[in-house]
Amino acid sequence: MREYELFASWGIIYSYALCTVMLLTAFIFNKDKLLNITAYILLPTFAVHSLIFVSRWHSTGYFPANGAFENGITSGWFAVGLTVYLFVKKKALRGVGLVTVPATLLALGYGIMVASFDRPHEAALKSSWLVIHVAFAQLAFGAYLVASGLGVLYLLKDNSLKKSTESAFYAKLPALPVIDETMFRFVVYGFIADAIMIAAGSIWAKELWGSYWSWDPVEVWSLLAWLVYGLTIHLRVTLGWRGRRLAWIFVFAIFGIVIAYWGVDFMVQNTLHVFGVKS
Amino acid sequence: MLFSLKKFYVFFKSARMTVIIISVMMVLFLAGLFVPQKTFFGSRAKYDEWRFASPNFSAVVEYFKLNEIYISPVTVAALSVFFIHLIVVVLNRVPVMLRKAYLTGNAERVETPDIRDIPGTARIEAQKDIGADVAMAEVQRYLRKKMWTVLSVGPTGLTAVKNRYSPLGFILFHLSFFLCLMGGLLVSYTRFSGNLVLTEGQELTTELKHFRLINREPKLIKQVPLLGLELSSVKPVYERNIAVDLSVNMKIKHEGGAEAVTLGTNKPVNKGSMSILPQNIGVSPLFLLSDMYGKELGGGYFVLNILKGGQEDSFEIPGFPYKFYVRFYPDYAVEDGRDISRSLELRDPVVFLTVQKSGGNVYEGRVRPGQTVFFDGLGMRYGDTRYWVDFLIVREYGNMPLFIGFGVGVAGLLMRLVFFQKEVVFNIEKEGGRMLIFYNGRSEYYKHSFKEELEKIGRDILLTLEQDQGPIGGKA
Lengths: 279, 476
Ligand code: HEM
Fold this sequence. Notes:
The complex is a heterodimer. Chain A is mainly α. Chain A has helices at residues 3-28, 32-60, 67-89, 97-114, 128-162, 168-171, 176-208, 217-237, 243-267. Chain A has one domain (3-267). In chain A, helix 3 packs antiparallel against helix 4 (97-114) and helix 3 (67-89) crosses helix 5. The longest helix of chain A has 35 residues, at 128-162. The radius of gyration of chain A is 19 Å and the shape is globular. Chain B is of the alpha+beta class. Chain B folds into 4 domains: 2-100, no CATH class; 112-163 and 420-466, Alpha-D-Glucose-1,6-Bisphosphate, Chain A, domain 4 (2-Layer Sandwich); 175-281 and 391-406, Tick-borne Encephalitis virus Glycoprotein, domain 1 (Sandwich), CATH 2.60.98; 283-388, no CATH class. Chain B has helices at 2-12, 15-34, 44-53, 55-63, 73-100, 132-145, 168-190, 399-418, 447-469; strands spanning 122-126, 148-153, 157-162, 192-199, 203-205, 213-216, 228-239, 242-254, 257-263, 269-271, 274-290, 296-301, 312-315, 322-329, 332-335, 338-341, 350-357, 360-367, 372-375, 378-395, 422-431, 434-443. Chain B is elongated, with a radius of gyration of 37 Å. Bound molecules: protoporphyrin IX containing FE (HEM). Protoporphyrin IX containing FE (HEM) sits between chains B (18, 21-22, 82, 85-86, 89, 93, 169-170, 173-174, 416-417) and A (226-227, 230, 233-234, 237-238). Protoporphyrin IX containing FE sits between chains B (18, 21-22, 82, 85-86, 89, 93, 169-170, 173-174, 416-417) and A (226-227, 230, 233-234, 237-238).
C-alpha cells in the first residue's frame, strides 16, 4: 500500500467518524443546520474515498476486493455513494447517512486494523467474474443499507408525528409515503443487484471450484439474505404491507447481509469464501 | 370433503402460502448452518464422537437425515411444495398478467374515462385558441416520443400506458426458477466428478481406473467421455508464498485430434460436457534404487505432498522392505541452524531423506538432484523434480438451462421492477374558446413519487404546445 493511500485512508476514517458524530448529534438534538454542515464534510470525504478506490484499482491492476481493507473501501464507496446521491438529488432524505456513514466507518476501520496491505493478489482472485460478483454484491449491500437508513428515518418521523406537535426537524423530511416508496425503491435495486451477484458468483464458482453451488455457508447466507428481501417484496406487492412494519423489517434485514459478509468468516472454519477477515 | 378440498386449494394458492413456503425453505437452509452436517466433520471418527456425545439429538438428526439437510427428504418435500405452489400461482396469474399487458384483445376495448372530477386530476389551460384535434395530436406525439403506448384515442381524450409488457416480467422471473431447477437437477443427476493426478511428462486417459478419487458418480449417463490428457509443463508463480499465477500446459487428445491448451486458476478447459480444472499442485521427485553395480532395481517419480516446505510425506518401492520419508526444501537455506525454504520456487531443491527398515533408520541426510546415497548395500539416486497437478475433472449437463435461467430471471426482474407500468389519461375539452387539458395517472409500486412525474408531463406538454403553437399560457 502506498503511503499516500494509507494517509488518505486514515483521513477519511477520521472524517467519517466526525460525520457520524455530527449526524447523531443532529438527530438527537434535532438540528437541521448540522445536517447541512455534514453535507459539506461528507462530499469532499467521498471524493477522497473515490480517489483511494481508483488508486487501489490502478496500482494493483485489479478491482479492489483483496482483503478486509479493500473490501471496506469498495463496500463503503457504494454505500456512501448512494448516500451522496440522495444528498444531491433528494436533500430531504440526507438523514440516511445516519446508517450508511457509521456502517462505512466500521467496515473501513475494521479493514485498516486487520488487513495485511501488501498481500499479493492471489490467482484465485483474478477473474472477470469476480469484478461482476463483487461489484454487484457491494452495490446490493449499499442499496440495502440505504433502505435500512430510510427505514430508520421513517420510524423516527412516524414517532414524531404521533406526538402532539411535530418537530420542525422531522417536518422537513418528506411525507411518510414518499419515504416508504423510496425505501422500497432501494430494496428493489439491491434485490436485483443481489440476484446478479448470486448468478455471477455461481458461474465464477464453476470456473474456480468446479461446481455452481456447493452449499458453502457463505452461499447459503447470501441466498437467505436474498430470500429475506424477496419475501419483503412479496409482503409489499402481494400482501400490501406498508409503513412501520416494513420499515422495521428493512432496518433489520441488513443483518442477513452482514452475517453473510462478515459473520460467516468468524463463525465457521469450513467456508471456501475468505473475505480477508482471517488474512 | 369436497368443500374442504376447495378450501385447501384456495389457501394453497394464496399469497400467504407463498410467504409460508419461502419461510419454511429459509428455516431449512438456516438449519443447515447450525445442525451439524456430515461435511462439517473431517473424519468418520469425529462424526462418531459427536454421535456419542449427543445420542438423542443425533438420533433425531439421523432419522430425518438432517445431517445432509440440503438433500434430505424434508428439504426435497419443501422444495416440491414450493414448485407446485409456484406453478399453480403462475398458471392462475398468467391470464391476469396478459390482461395487464393488454395482450388478450383488451387493448382494443380500452375506453378513455372522464377524469375531470376525479381527485388528483390536474389541468393545463391553453390561452390561445387551438383546435382540440391539434392538442390531441401534440399530446400523442409527446407521449410516443417518451415511449408511451397510446391505447385509446376517443373524441374527448386518450389513454396511454408506459412499459406495457412489464407484467410479463413476473412470468419470466418466476419461470426462471423452473429453468434453474431443471438445470440444477440435470447437473446433479449427470454430474461425474473425480480427481486425477498427472506429473509433468505423463499421459493418462479419463478411464475411471486412473482417477485418484471419484467424488461423485452420475445417476444418469454414466459413460464419461474418453479424453487423453498429457501434462507438458507447469509454471506456478509465487509472491511471498502466495500463488499469484499458474500456467498448466497440456495436450488434450480427443477423437483422434490433439489440442495444446493452457489452464490456470479460474481458467478451466471445457471440452463439451467435460471441464478440467487444476485444483492443486505439488512436486514429484524422481528416486531410482540401484544395486552396488548401478543396475536399476526400481523407483520413479513419486507424487508427494511436500511442496509447502518442511512438510513430510513418504513412499515405498514395491518389493523392498523400506519406507522412505521425504522433507522438501524447494529453495534451500539454513537459518539459525535449521533447514528452511526461502520461497516456494524450485530454485535450489534439497530433499531431507530418511530411510527406515522395520521401524529403525538406515539412512538420514540431505540430498541434491543428481546425488546418490547408499544404505544396506543399495544406492538411491535423486534425479530431478517435476510438478504434479491434481486435476478436478467434472462431467455434467445442464449448463444451458441454468444460464438461460439466470438470464431470463434477471431480465424478468428488470422488466417488472425497473420498467414498471404507468398509465395516464388525458381529457381534452374546449370551453368558451379556451383549450383545457385534464390529466391523471397511476403507477405501479410508486404511487406518490409518480405525482411528480405526472406534474412534469403536464409542464412538458404545455411547453410543447407553446413551442409549436405560439404563445399559450396555462396552469397545472
Ligand atoms: C412459491 C413461490 C412463489 C410464488 C407463488 C410467487 C408469487 C408471486 C406473485 C403472485 C407476485 C405478484 C405479481 C404481481 O402482481 O406483480 C410475486 C411478485 C414477486 N416475487 Fe414472487 N413468488 C414466489 C417466489 C418468489 C421468490 C423465491 C422470490 C425471490 C426471492 C420472489 C420474488 C418476487 C419479486 C421480486 C416480485 C415482484 C416482481 C414481480 O411481480 O414479479 N418470488 N410473486
